[in-house]
Design goal:
Shape: elongated
Helix content: under 10%
Distance between the termini: 43 Å
Strand content: 35-45%
Number of strands: 33
Strand order of the largest sheet: 4-5-6-9-18-11-12-13-14
Structural class: mainly beta
């Protein structure tokens, strides 16, 4: 399994909103590659494809429910693009984001149409002077997928280095693997380091190759749905992208906040032990005096550096408040008490040993199995954090922060698929939160975890906010 302990999240798009333009100015992605531009609203793709901007009259992109969908349309759909080509879409972070080394991952449901050609790949900001039609070029294909071989995963390294004598490029430049069940969403990743490039599918290693001499400079991201050159005519088909995430283990890397996780199937794999910066307004701004947490204002929780100036800070989503699940034991001056049995005026014992009165209790309930996948709890199993910690399984909402090794970390960032999991359906799921006279650390099943921080608009998300307290 991928282990990104010590890494920082440096790029994150959960596709909760669309941010695509022709040149990438003011947006996350551009959809026209200047060096391949064909006309005002398209570039010449590959296979039998042109990649279009919505100004062409055909928009290949749509964002809904946390998913970016790219749809390829048969020839004749618009007035842009190379004559006779299919119209589809490509997104690129060229000019906006690039990175040297790290782990790069996409989670996608690629098309099984026989003409589909999906890809997630990296290109250098500047090609080597040695690049040519004879010497090759620099490129790192995390995954290429062909609909006519739906289980196949092709991961390929392109370099200007000479091919070692007596070998084929398939032996030294490519890793091929197959999915036992290609249906649905899968993750495809690469850990590119100075000495080795390792490929992963669904978090599992599938092979690696030595890093060529010319792949040691920043590379940007591309993702696309192309159409194979053998395609004739047919009906539209689509591919869907759940997220694109990038991580770095460079100690000087600047972490970014993770946006709201919006997994369409409720099976988000988490950050594999990596850390992310705090989200502005997410309610994790440090604990008050007397706790074991940092002083108020320690906004670089999770051990990450603040995102650089100009990087968008994602506010806490309006439908996702950090909370404890029914049954969670909270330490009080009369012993451990289930959170739903607490009352305003009760005194809790904080992680710093203080006895502080409860000022407000909020409750939020999802009847039956109505909780969407993004709202389902994280389960931190007994002993998952330290020996005997938590003392029992701790269930909290994904955005709820715990205090771990001197850092505030949202529970959703700790998911590892085994001892810490996410997404199980809970009937009549009820979340609770407890506000003190200042932000602090409660002891929940023996785990220091934050009390309620009244960020703007958060209190109104609860079913029982009326206790005379105003936000």
């Amino acid at each position: 399994m991928v282990d990104l302990t010590g890494y920082r999240l440096t790029f994150d798009d959960e596709f909760n909103a669309r941010s695509i333009s022709q040149n990438g100015v003011g947006t996350t992605y551009r959809d026209i590659r200047a060096e391949w531009r064909y006309d005002a609203n398209s570039d010449i793709g590959f296979g039998r494809s042109s990649f279009l901007d919505s100004g062409s009259g055909y928009d290949p992109f749509s964002v809904q429910n946390g998913v970016l969908t790219i749809t390829a349309a048969p020839p004749g759909t618009s007035y842009s693009g190379y004559p006779g080509s299919w119209q589809s879409g490509l997104i690129s972070t060229q000019g906006n984001f690039s990175q040297t080394y790290g782990y790069f991952e996409i989670r996608a449901d690629f098309s099984n149409n026989p003409d589909a050609w999906d890809a997630f790949w990296l290109l250098p900001n500047q090609q080597s002077p040695q690049s040519s039609s004879t010497n090759g070029h620099q490129e790192l294909d995390v995954v290429e997928h062909y609909g006519n071989n739906d289980p196949g995963v092709y991961s390929t390294i392109h370099t200007t280095d000479p091919q070692p004598a007596g070998t084929t490029w398939q032996q030294t430049r490519q890793v091929y693997s197959e999915l036992p069940n290609p249906n649905g969403y899968h993750t495809y990743g690469v850990n590119w380091q100075a000495d080795r490039i390792s490929f992963y599918v669904d978090g599992q290693p599938v092979g690696s190759q030595a890093t060529p001499s010319d792949l040691h400079s920043p590379m940007f991201l591309l993702a696309n749905l192309a159409v194979q050159s053998t395609a004739t005519t047919g009906s539209r088909f689509s591919s869907s992208i759940d997220y694109i995430r990038v991580y770095s283990n460079d100690p000087n890397a600047a972490a970014v906040p993770q946006d709201r996780v919006s997994s369409p199937d409720g099976r988000d794999p988490g950050l594999y032990g990596a850390t992310a910066a705090a989200r502005s307004g997410a309610g994790v701004t440090g604990a008050s005096s007397g706790s074991t947490g940092p002083a108020s204002g320690a906004n670089e929780s999770n051990g990450s550096t603040r995102a650089p100036s100009g990087t968008a800070q994602s506010p806490a989503p309006p439908d996702n408040a950090p909370c404890y699940c029914t049954g969670t034991s909270i330490r009080t001056d009369r012993g451990d008490v289930a959170v739903e049995q607490l009352a305003v005026g009760d005194r809790v014992v904080t992680a710093g040993g203080l006895r502080r009165p409860i000022r407000w209790i909020g409750r939020r309930t999802y009847p039956g199995l109505s909780a969407p996948p993004s709202a389902r709890p994280v389960r931190i199993r007994t002993g998952a954090l330290h020996d005997g910690v938590p003392a029992r399984d701790l269930l909290v909402s994904p955005d709820h922060a715990v205090w771990l090794d001197g850092l505030f970390v949202a529970a959703g960032h700790l998911v590892n698929g085994t001892s810490i999991t996410r997404g199980e359906p809970v009937r009549d799921l009820t979340y609770w939160h407890v506000e003190l006279d200042g932000h602090d650390l409660l002891m929940a099943e023996g785990v220091p975890a934050e009390s309620f921080l009244p960020a703007p608009g958060i209190r109104g998300l609860f079913d029982s906010p009326d206790t005379g307290v105003t936000a």
